[in-house]
Amino acid sequence: MVLKKSLFAKLLVGMLLAAVVPFAISNLIFYKVASDSVGSQVIALNQKTMDIGMDNMIRYLDNLNKLSVGFYNDKTLMSYLRTRESPPDQMLYITNQITTLFNNDSEIKAVRYVSATSGQTYMKSNSSLLELSLQLSPSEIPKREGENWDITRGYEVMMLANERVLALHKPLVDYPRTDVLGLVSLFVGPSEISRLIRPLSDAEAGEAVFLYIHKQSQLLYASSSELAVEFDEPQSGPEYWGSRGYANGKLDGRKGVFVYVQDRYLDLPLALVKFVPAAVINESANRTLNFTLVLQLITLFFVIVFASFLSYRTIAPIKRLLRSIVHLELGDFRVRQTSGRTDEIGVLEQRFQNMVGRLDDLINREYRSRYELTTARLKMLQAQINPHFLYNTLQSIGTLALRHRAAEVSDKIAELGAIMRYSMDIKTETVRLQKEIEHIEHYLSLQTGRFKNKLSYTLSCPNEALSISVPKMILQPLVENSIIHGIEKGKGAGTLHIGIELDRSLSIRVMDNGKGFDPEVLARIRKSYENRQLQGPDEGGIGLLNVLYRLNLHYGSGFEWDITSCPYEATVIMLRIPVGTGDEGGEQT
User: Fold this and answer.
1) Which residues pair with 60 in a beta bridge?
2) Which of 97, 92, 56 is nearest to 74 (CA)?
3) For each successive 10 residues of the chain (589 residues), what is the average pLDDT?
4) Cα separation of 121 and 319, whole Å?
5) pTM higher than 0.85 for the full model?
6) Main-chain phi, psi angles of 325, to 5 degrees
7) Which of 111, 429, 435, 456 counts the most CB atoms within 10 A of its CB?
């Protein structure tokens, strides 16, 4: 129902839908794209890290290889190794060199040399049981360089004391001949390999890293003790791998990605594999998405604020027009000033205001014509009695009163004559305020004589206001209204005050303590004034409303009035008349 009746709601909802729907769709698309993009970035970043780990592993194998060929640098040792006999001094020398090689690296678990010439085995290890498990028959040693020997025999993974070790076997060739003097074997523990590879993974995040050698993928090192590896696709296994890439699968039932890097040391295939859980990739994607979502929500908030502001700016002038139309229907032509906009709505406001102004002028001209017609009829009635005849008759009666020594009666007749002469002067429309005051003083004098001691009045006016020109007969209807409808119809006695002040405007207040106005009467007066409804003779003739209409026609929008009433305490009729340079001077006819 709200959308049907409110253009503002329709416009706002439409603008919000235009912003929110693309926002939601873009978030869904962005989440998919961001997940794939972040996944690719995570894989690429891990591969770069694993390249460093692979380089470190190759350097480590190269160091081990250099240790295994250290015998070539000792000429004495090489000469002893060529002899078929094994005197005690030679055996002691060879044993010392084996011990020296064993002590070169703490990761070496054992060093073994098997002589192909004498069949003697020399070994140094940290366990006698280990030495028993590492015995090798001289018949297994190749006779010539490259004979029955390949890289698979040169490097192998062995289990010693429940621990994976790397066994490096190096035939000792009697260069420049091709005869093999013996076989040097180094058995290296996993500690140094773990130190090089373990930092590549985050165990707390569920990551794991593995190192394989040979095409048969012999596991040399694993950061995780459990190795339940499962690939999603049949052709995702290591035998299908290239130099680098990734494969989707599971480790111990957890979904993720196996990122791998393959390389070679000499002819030894090496494969470094890292398992990254899907939760880690999703967390990175969610972190990126959440950051982007916060920015988009902030942007959406400003879009909503802007849409609300734009909708309000669009609808507010239309609502003002609707309110002005309602006031116009009630007869109120006081339209608020336009917003000053230059767009289509601003032009509509300006055209509407101009239309109301012209309509108000037409109605005022019509009202002025009707008022002038009423005034002409009144003047015709007044003209039916000869003013000079009345004034001369009153003067004769006053003279007669003086002859009978009734001075008070003569004074009252003189005041009545002045009142009649002033009110029946139909040629004069504006007078100085001083004449209005003199006229009202004559009128109040007659009324106080009528009410005896039941009516009292005061009148105050600054001297500088006496010369101001005002429309004729604006005070008597107000004073007459206070006496007849306020005091006489109230308690029959009261006080009347007429106060005139001059500031930027001329303020006239007529105040009495009579019966006052009921709220309903005040409401009818204001409504009649707004609707320009003329009062008939049975409603007071040229009474209060006619005075207000005349002043409004004479001064326009500069004229203001107000009525406040508290029965039997204070009823105040206030008129505020603008004062200009042309308001001082004489009378106008």
Assistant:
1) none
2) 97
3) 60 72 72 71 89 92 86 86 81 89 87 84 76 60 60 78 85 84 88 89 87 85 79 82 89 89 90 89 73 78 77 74 74 66 71 76 71 61 53 64 66 74 78 92 85 88 93 90 87 91 93 90 85 51 77 88 91 91 58
4) 108
5) no
6) -65, -40
7) 111
